[in-house]
Design a protein that fits this description.
single chain; 146 residues; alpha/beta; four-stranded parallel β-sheet; 3 helices
Length: 146
Amino acid sequence: MDRAFRPAAKINLLFVCRAHTALAPMAAGLARAAYGHPDICVESAGLTPGTVDPRAIAAMAEIDIDISQTASTSVRDLKLETVEIVVSLGVHKLGVNRSQMALSWDVPEFEPATDRPALPALREIRDGLATRIRALGAILTSAGRA
């Protein structure tokens, strides 16, 4: 993620996942690093928030992104009406009003209690999110964005 994106207008962007332990914090960290612009406010939340998994923190640290200070946040505690774009990660698309953009990314939920080694799975999730976030950057910076 080597260039800073320039949005067409101020944007509040929210990533939401089920437990707020890996997916949304990782996506928010990637977006902040990719976009690096004061007119893009990036937040993350969970339907039932929990503490960020240390292995997700480690996977992000490998690419020099620190998500260790991510607060446990419930989507119910946010003012959703102030968000322009809501990206649902591995959960059903949240209801939004007509002035908001809702995206639903089919991302496998990170399951900490599986036989699959956690760090390789988190790296795969991280890299997949990075690709989508770069693509979203093209939408955010489009002068013709509605």
